[in-house]
Amino acid sequence: MDRAILHFDLDTFFVSVERKLDSRLEKRPILVGGTGDRGVVAACSYETRQFGVHSGMPMKMARMLCPEATVIRGNGETYSQHSKVVSEIIAENVPVFEKASIDEFYADLSGMDKYFNCYGMASELRQRIIRESGLPISFGLATNKLVSKVATGEAKPNNQLQVEAGREKPFLAPMEVQKIPMVGEKMNQTLNNLGIRYVKTIQEMPMEIMGQVLGKNGVSLWNRANGLDNSPIVPFHERKSISSERTFGRDTGDVRKMREMVRAMAETLAFQLRTGEKLTSCVSVKIRYSDFNTFSKQLKIAYTSADHVLIPHIEKLFDQLYNRRMMVRLVGVSFSDLVTGNYQINLFDDTEERLNLYQAMDYIKTKYAYNKDGDQILTWASTMGISDIGSMGNPFNGEPPIIPAHRNA
């Protein structure tokens, strides 16, 4: 039985939401992102792309390329709410689906042709999403995730496309190689230097040659060029909260030590949010005194996963909560009301330098995590020396936690 994998993608999602909220923005060039000269473009309308604008570029450059564009700061919470509406519609209509990002979804319709026409069902579902969410959306339907994703890209804007079983190779053959997921600018340049511009060229090459030239990436690229992909749909389950607690080896009244501890826990949890592509809108702090009386305090905030936003809130909550002249046994930090989203979309006031800093820090943390003594390789200066604060793994994908050697806090 051939698989039937459906890929949905909300077209220019942030821009579409802004246009839904303000119809005067229709057909006008739109830039969503940091409004200052040092901000970053989070999303751009199709009207700006003919000028060479793309997401991720400095806002200053985008405004120079397209000076007539309307620049909008954007609101991560609003986008998350609209994404949730679409998620709920899809969940009601398919047996299993995967939420790949805030605006991208996969669904497995395999075997449903016995009862329904999969393409017809997908078409009806797309129309329902458009009708109930008010947002344009495109889909691709194919035998695997790779081809369905490429098909969605070809269907855009606001359209749909099916690649029937057995037609994967002819469908991909005439495309330029950068249309294959995993081929970025650097890989594309490497392939062009080798005289490879179109997918058909890779299809005609022996897999062994691709492996010799590009290693494992070459083998993976050959499989993708030939439309081969067995990656499964990962069922979507929304995690509502993450938390970290630490019981001190000995009850303490050292306020500075406790503040450093809650800072360190907030930093670790924020990192987990970013690696899990999650945002939080509710933060809380817990304190348990030596007499075992436990108190907590929470605060609603705008959706974020940024250290420099979350840590000050956590410190403020701790200062408000710690009001008894008594030794403390335990402190804890929790982030809840989680939604799917990339942290960059919520940092519209941030500079390109700050976004690059977060990406670099997260890369180092992911790759190296802890040194041989159990201390984090990379942390903010204010939390240096704080160890044993819990997992640096990803709690959203089943990754086992990486626990440093135990020390009494």
Automatic annotation (TrEMBL):
InterPro entries cross-referenced by the UniProt entry: DNA/RNA_pol_sf, DNA_pol_Y-fam_lit_finger_sf, DNA_pol_Y-fam_little_finger, DNA_polymerase-Y, DNApol_IV, Rev_trsase/Diguanyl_cyclase, UmuC
Reactions this protein catalyses: DNA(n) + a 2'-deoxyribonucleoside 5'-triphosphate = DNA(n+1) + diphosphate
Broadest EC class assigned to this enzyme: transferase
- What are the record keywords, sorted? Cytoplasm, DNA damage, DNA repair, DNA replication, DNA-binding, DNA-directed DNA polymerase, Magnesium, Metal-binding, Mutator protein, Nucleotidyltransferase, Transferase
Lineage: superkingdom: Bacteria
Under the heading Pfam families, the entry gives:
IMS (PF00817), IMS_C (PF11799)
Q: What is its main location?
A: cytoplasm
Task: List ligand-binding residues for Mg(2+).
Answer: D9, D103
> EC number(s) in its UniProt entry?
2.7.7.7
Enumerate the active-site residues. Answer: E104
- Oligomeric and partner information: Monomer.
Q: What does this protein do?
A: Poorly processive, error-prone DNA polymerase involved in untargeted mutagenesis. Copies undamaged DNA at stalled replication forks, which arise in vivo from mismatched or misaligned primer ends. These misaligned primers can be extended by PolIV. Exhibits no 3'-5' exonuclease (proofreading) activity. May be involved in translesional synthesis, in conjunction with the beta clamp from PolIII.
Q: Which family does it belong to?
A: Belongs to the DNA polymerase type-Y family.
Mind telling me which NCBIfam families this protein's record contains? PRK02406.1
This chain's protein is named DNA polymerase IV
Q: Which organism is it from?
A: Dyadobacter beijingensis
Query: Highest lineage ranks of the organism?
Result: Bacteria, Pseudomonadati, Bacteroidota, Cytophagia, Cytophagales
The record's gene field reads: dinP
